[in-house]
Amino acid sequence: MFTVDRKDFGPGFTFGAATAAYQIEGGQRDGRGPSIWDSFSATPGNVKNADTGAIACNHYELWPQDLDLIRDAGLDAYRFSFAWPRLLPEGTGAVNQAGVDFYDRLIDGMLERGIAPYATLYHWDLPSALQDRGGWMNRDIAGWFADYAALVAQKFGDRLQATATINEPWCVAFLSHYLGIHAPGYRDMRAAARAMHHVLFAHGTAIDALRANGARNLGIVLNLEKAEAASDAPEDIAAMNMGDAIFNRWYLGGVLKGAYPEEVTAWLGDHLPANYQNDMAVVSRPLDWLGINYYTRSLYRAPTTPGGHVVEQVKGDLEKTDIGWEIYPKGLSDLLVRVSREYTKIPLYVTENGMAEVEGDDDPRRVRYYDEHLQAVLAARAEGADVRGYFAWSLLDNYEWAEGYEKRFGLVHVDYQTQKRTPKASYRAFQGMLHNTR
Ligand code: IFM
C-alpha cells in the first residue's frame, strides 16, 4: 500500500496509466503499414532475443479488458498513442479506415468507462515509407507530421482530453540517430543534428495543425533526467552541464524559450540544418501543458577516451531497477521545481514514471518506487510546481524496445503465451489509493 493518499493531491489531480501503440497493440493487419520498428527489430542484433512488436499484448483485440483494468484501478485517464502507420499506411495520403475505426472504438470505450483519453501522436513508430524519404532527417517531415496531426484532430479531436505531439524527442533524435540504439539505428552526427531540430520543428507545425482543426489542450512530452556530476572536479561539472544541455536543455530551451543551448549548437556546428534559427518561433509555439517523463538521474564525468563521446556517464551506487537505472525520487521533485522556476508556468504532468522489475505479480519494490515518486510530486507541488497529473508507466508489461519483452514495467503482468493479464501488487496499491474516490 502507498503512504500517500489521493486527497493529498487535491481535487482535480489526474491519475492515469500510460502505454504506446507499438509496445502493446500487435494487430499488424487490416491495412496497417510497416513502421521503422518492424524492420529495425527484424534486423539481427538490434533487439534482445530478436523480439518484435508483431503480437505484443494484442491490445488491438484485447483493448476492452485493458480499459476495464484501467477503470477498475480507479484511474481517471489513459495515456495512449496513435500508430501513424495504422492511420496512414504510407505516412501521407490515403487514410486506412480500419485504423480510424480501431481508434474510434478505443476512444469511445474510454469515454463509456469514464476514462479521459490523453493521446500522443508519435511514440516512435514512423511509417517506413517516410523513413525511405529520410524520416526525421528530412525537413519535409514537418509537413507530413502536420498533415497527420490535422487528420487526428478532425477524426478524434472532439473526444480527446489532451493531445501531445511527440513522446520523448531526445529518443526520437539522439538515441535513434546518434547512439543508434533505437530505430532507425543511425550513428551519425549530421543525422542526429537534423533529427534534433526537425523533431521540434515538426512538433511546432503539428501544434499549429491541431489548433487549426479544433483540437484543444495541447502539449509535448519530454524525457528529462536529473543531471549530476560524478565528482566536484571542474571537468566533471563541465561534463554535467554539457550532458544536461544535450539531454534536457535542448528540448526545454527549444520548446519553451525558442532557443537551443549554445554549447550544443557549437558542438553540432555545420551538421545543423542551415538557417534553423528561422524556425524557432514555430518550435516554441505556446502550449497548454508540458509532459515530463522521469525515471532516473544521469551521472556525468569528463571524457576519458580520446575521440570518444563529448560526455561520459558513470554508474552510480544507488539501488537500481531491473533495467539498471538508479532509483532517485528526489530527481523528480528537483526537475519539476526547476522546470516551473526556469522555464514555464503552464501546467505540468508527469506523463511517465515507473520501474522495470523482475517477472512476478508481487512487486513490493515497485510499490515503494511509486510511493516515493508520488511523494516527490507532492514535494514539488509544495515548492510551487503546478503539477496537475501523474501517469504510471506502464499499464501492462510490454515491448521494451531494444530490450524486447524481458524488461517488465507493467502494473499488470502479461503472460505473452496466453495473453492473460494479472494485476500486480502495484496495481492493487493504486487501486487502494484511488478506489471509490473518483
Ligand atoms: O518503454 C519506454 C517508453 O516507450 C518511453 N519512455 C520510457 C519507457 C521505459 O523505457
Textual characterization of the structure:
- This protein is of the alpha/beta class and 438 residues long.
- It has one domain (6-434): Glycosidases (TIM Barrel).
- It contains 15 helices and 13 strands.
- Strands 1-2-3-4-5-7-10-11 form an 8-stranded parallel beta barrel, surrounded by 6 helices. It has a 3-stranded mixed β-sheet with strand order 6-8-9.
- Strand 12 and strand 13 (420-423) form a beta hairpin.
- Helix 3 (59-73) runs parallel beside helix 5 (97-112) and helix 14 packs across helix 15.
- The two termini are 18 Å apart.
- The model has no long low-confidence stretch (mean pLDDT 98).
- Bound molecules: 5-hydroxymethyl-3,4-dihydroxypiperidine (IFM).
- 5-hydroxymethyl-3,4-dihydroxypiperidine is lined by residues 20, 23, 168, 293, 352, 393, 400, 409.
Q: First CA to last CA: what distance?
A: 18 Å
CATH top level label? Alpha Beta
Estimate percent helicity.
40-55%
CATH topology: TIM Barrel
How would you describe the oligomerization state of the chains in this entry?
single chain
Looking at CATH, the homologous superfamily is: Glycosidases
Please give the count of helices: 15
Q: Give the uncertain stretches in residue-range form.
A: none
Radius of gyration: 20 Å
Shape: globular
How many individual β-strands? 13
Order of helices and strands: EHHHEHHEHHEHHEEHHHEEEHEHEEEH
Q: Characterize the largest beta sheet: strand count, sense, and whether it forms a barrel.
A: 8 strands, parallel, barrel
Structural class, by secondary structure, is alpha/beta
Q: What share of the residues does DSSP label as strand, in percent?
A: 5-15%
Bound molecules: 5-hydroxymethyl-3,4-dihydroxypiperidine
Biggest sheet: strand arrangement:
1-2-3-4-5-7-10-11
Mean pLDDT: 98
